[in-house]
Amino acid sequence: MCSDVTSVSAPPGVPQSVVDWVSEVARLTQPDGVHWCDGSIEERDRLYDQMVAGGTLIKLNPQLRPGCYLARSLPSDVARVEARTFICSELESEAGPTNNWAAPDQMRQTLAQVFSGSMRGRTMYVIPFSMGPLGGDISKLGIEITDSPYVVVSMRIMTRVGLGPLAAISAGQPWVPAVHSVGYPLVDGSGQTRPDVAWPCNEEKYITHFPETREIWSYGSGYGGNALLGKKCYALRIASVLARDEGWLAEHMLILRITGPNGRVFNLCAAFPSACGKTNLAMLRPTIPGWKVETVGDDIAWMRPGPDGRLHAINPEAGFFGVAPGTSEKTNPTCLHALSHDTIFTNVGLTDDGDVWWEGMTDQPPAHLIDWQGQDWTPDCGRVAAHPNSRFTVNAAQAESISPNWEDPAGVPVDVILFGGRRSSNVPLISESYSWEHGVFVGATVSSEQTAAAEGTVGDLRRDPFAMLPFCGYNMADYWAHWLDLGRTLGDQAPRIFQVNWFRRDAEGNWLWPGFGDNSRPIEWALRRISGEVAARDVISGRIPVPGDLNVDGLDITNAQLDALFELDPKAWAYEADLTQTYFERFGDKVPPALWDQLEQLRQRIAQTEAEA
Ligand code: SAT
Ligand code: MN
Question: 300 CA to middle of ligand 1, Å?
Fold first, then answer.
């Protein structure tokens, strides 16, 4: 048991403050031992072997998927748990109406109880990590303590871990402490032992953030964003607070680098709610000739005004934690190829020859497999083979679309920002915002049909401002004000903002837009807009393409379908404007006046359209 400082045995050079913190966590959680992760391949392979022996991982057929493993979680631990996610700011108003708030003192007491002895019988791993290229101006450091070897090997893929980040921390760079326990001790208070299980976790879960002291404490879940604390907890919830205080942006956005036929390079950031095809867009293969698309990031963008006055974006992550179902040779060949080796799969099906399968991977499902719950599965059994939120964890460099610039510590200058959601009606395929303020209004009011990335009812429409609803570490209305402020700082150097919707359906429920590679077409229009090559039509939602300007060459689409993609019903928009008013009222007097002004301008455009009809 770790009851004193010496048994923490830190590597040489680690500052006393770090040793003290690790010792304190060890005293609280009482692990059998402490392991400081060096991030080496040997360490990784040792953990893989150990987890295979313990039943947490299944090694996939090395002929078919070299270096690949499968994990199966418990059905009670398959997604982020938003109801158990807390922002523990001193004031409730600081967390705002879209977050669960808990008083920091009270939450600390609760955490002290649940973490007490929570690592008994286990090893406590200390993972120093960097979000963003090590040493970069926009990058930040952290240390995650965890009792889950699955988290260690996943963090090694998703962030930059080990001796480099530890040296930077030892040199005095600031870092964010993050403590994680699955909450399944193997020894109880009276010394009774119990065997380990394949997926240890606890029914009671706390995913907690302390924005004032910049700390993360997560208990009870081993899955995804609940446990890989560099991702949503740090890179979004805590980083959004750092960004507000330091004048930058931490966003739930992918980053693309696009080269046009004339060689001009554009960088684009796009915000979509979880599980809306961001990874597919991040690895877009354009169907229009002459355009090249490279991936910089698929989930999170940290953006800072650079010395040139423009907004520069880095991907703070080093890997992709993407939704597996629906990934196929047709929908995202780049991604599928990236998953051919050195990938951890979680909650997908296991084929009889030791490979993986999920819904949508192939037209023809295997005749038999073992499903994500470890049961026999056949195509007619009435159950899915892979959980809808099953995931792959893979290093970003394995994608052949990865940009040579993806690790540029200075980031890429952002030309375009897209806001998207999953909307079967009302929102057109693409429209450009009238101004930065209008773009912020669009971002603030975006709504989407609920997906499986979080617990909840799939299909319900929910407001998801900036796709940050579950990820903003402070009051959402203050966050909108921060965006407006940053627009003023950037002035005419600010990126142009567009809204997109790939998910529109006709009256019979059929998709109106093919999506995937053809999403390059509306993006091409946006890039031609910012290059000043095309005019636009001013409508309710913003500026949309003049008929004939959207490149549909070679696409099997009728004019009626195209019209339907851009149809704007003033009555439906008037109804949404009323909902927006009610929604804004939830935030009381925190809503920036500029956004009320945008709502008024929207209502004027609706009235004008109705008058003209
Ligand atoms: O937060 S996770 O990383 O588990 C998944 C998501 O919501 O995008
Ligand atoms: Mn995400």
Answer: 11
